[in-house]
């Protein structure tokens, strides 16, 4: 039997291969960009442009080496994280215990979990006993979770719906007890192995992350293809055909000019600067390209508990209830008289004891602590799940004395069932009780109607409206024959029915002080804020009002859904909160449909064209963090791999920072791309004008422009940093929008006219000597035409860098980027020296013609200054049009969804 199962499922191994360097090299070199680099280097070598070819080759080798090292390093880390091999004890068909390697585990094997626990190498369903598990690797929850046995039944097992009974691969089992013949171990059955486990799914999501469907990167590729294939090649073929020179080499050379070799590295420079700035603020990013995506976020989702509010809950009070109504509010449970209510608060939980320390969910820890009862592990000579001992008699409330209670069976909390319950036995089995704790509506539905106070609904509404977390408790006596030695316990269905209502426990969850300021900041920036929570709707509304997500003048729409039945169709009922508390009024379906959809789960927001961010504490938000465009985890646990960003600050103050950095990075990427495109167009215009004159730029001139001048400028353009405020206007994400294309077109016209004007001024001088038309290209160097075009284009590279590096309103002003400004002044001075003076060694090296006419040189610098002025005017006018269009479109959109 095992043989056939092992053939079907294979070895229990999450194998992430570490690729050898040669394989990584071939995969890296086959990247389209590096293929283009190889093509360019070969072309430049054929054209005797060895210097630039060698420089680009060296830079490419360095880039590939760094990329290979980082890729290999990440692969090794993931391989070590995924691979888990250990020895385990199992039972198979013979029922005999045997020790095997975890690689041999297959679904169906019976796994023996020792009392001291182990690192689980598979997914398994717990059959007997209880396990204390650290699931931080999967959920981010630092507190251990108690796992209880799977209940018998005919239903199909699902690890998602039976999480409380499932042990997940990669989690640390801290302690096991209560199962097996000796009661010192737990028993589980293997359900999944390898990549089919929870850890396998996590590793798969890291190996194959959600693709970035971002318009900017797609438009960049389209823009370059059109620019290179259509404009450059067609014109160069016409010009070169007339000059009767090599069409293939010269046409392909134009393509390498239009697509800058440094473009990919330049585009990543801004995101790297942003990543480093975020790191200084305690925010870490595992995918730098996602920083740009954050710049387009239009809706921010927040988890409630632990994110908007404090993680812990404080007991606010307890109120006993019965057929005659509710008693007075008791601020501390320890002040209650001994009875079922006090016993229920002390026993209905999954708190456990590990090495003398109580562990469990914060809510339950607070509840138990408020009763004054103490958790113990021994109940005479009997092994039980837990023992609750009351405080010393002199510390108890006046009245009868409470006695120790043993918890012999637990039915853990389930979000689907909205409740948990326990079975307890008093000393020597004199009395047995079942206690239930959960959502008030669910507990009441399981209690006998005559035990529920008449004004239950109004009390619940009152407490929930105050933002209190309300839990209800119930109990019932069980068969007195039940005792600590019992081996057959009652079923959950039998326990959780015909209960008697005990009362309400109120707990206060305070809003973090930073939440209101952040929500207000987002609101002023016209960014929508949404709370995602499974808590009571009235409690959630109170928290939303406390943090400013809902303003005092706004009303809340409640949506009630009824499912499809044989007698009726499914319906949605929309009710509007009445400020005077006179009840709920029913409104038309279509009137509030759009607003209601905008309050639903994350995936629905995609249908409404939102870019969504999700911020959670990492405990139960992994799915939402992965579903959102960008996720922010406030937990540093290993579950942060589910989110792109992880913040060391445990509040939402990092969200505006991330949006500001995202907008700054996105605007920088736009500026860099436009600059690289215009840099190509400047060189493109220079080459085509000089081709028309039967000459070209020299190899060292190309090298001077491409490396010392442009490359230095482009890599310091993004160092300015983000604006200190969030502006209502969001940056554009499309390079193919009319304002962007119009700006590039107008700048190109100014560039072309400037170079053409410089050439015409040169040819109109009395000392001008025409070129030799019998030779072409570099054989005509140096010459006057080359000098004028080189001089003006050199200024244009610097001018355009200054013009497109604007900040408002998403970046700090230009004067904050000190390094960029210093570099600009140095390069301006260098170009002025090259134009005005014939510098020994440098001018001959650049093959610059020596024109002695100083008036002509001053006129050339004046044309460059005029070019700066015209480009600046074009940029400001186009930018203002773009800014106004975005602002108005955002305002119209906000009015559409009812936020204005």
Automatic annotation (TrEMBL):
Gene Ontology CC terms: late endosome membrane
GO terms of molecular function: ATP binding; ATP hydrolysis activity; ATPase-coupled monoatomic cation transmembrane transporter activity; metal ion binding; P-type transmembrane transporter activity; polyamine transmembrane transporter activity
P-type ATPase A domain residues: 86-205
GO biological process, one term: intracellular calcium ion homeostasis
InterPro entries named among the record's database cross-references: ATPase_P-typ_cyto_dom_N (IPR023299), ATPase_P-typ_P_site (IPR018303), ATPase_P-typ_TM_dom_sf (IPR023298), ATPase_P-typ_transduc_dom_A_sf (IPR008250), ATPase_P-type_domA (IPR059000), HAD-like_sf (IPR036412), HAD_sf (IPR023214), P-type_TPase_V (IPR006544)
SUPFAM superfamilies: Calcium ATPase, transduction domain A, Calcium ATPase, transmembrane domain M, HAD-like, Metal cation-transporting ATPase, ATP-binding domain N
Superkingdom of source: Eukaryota
Intracellular or extracellular location(s): Membrane
One Pfam family per UniProt: Cation_ATPase
Bilayer topology: Multi-pass membrane protein
Transmembrane segments: 21-43, 49-69, 220-242, 254-274, 672-694, 700-718, 738-761, 787-805, 814-838, 858-876
Keyword annotations of the record: ATP-binding, Magnesium, Membrane, Metal-binding, Nucleotide-binding, Translocase, Transmembrane, Transmembrane helix
Family: Belongs to the cation transport ATPase (P-type) (TC 3.A.3) family. Type V subfamily.
UniProt-listed NCBIfam families: ATPase_P-type, P-ATPase-V
Protein name from the UniProt record: ATPase cation transporting 13A2
Annotated organism of origin: Mastacembelus armatus
Upper taxonomic lineage: Eukaryota, Metazoa, Chordata, Craniata, Vertebrata
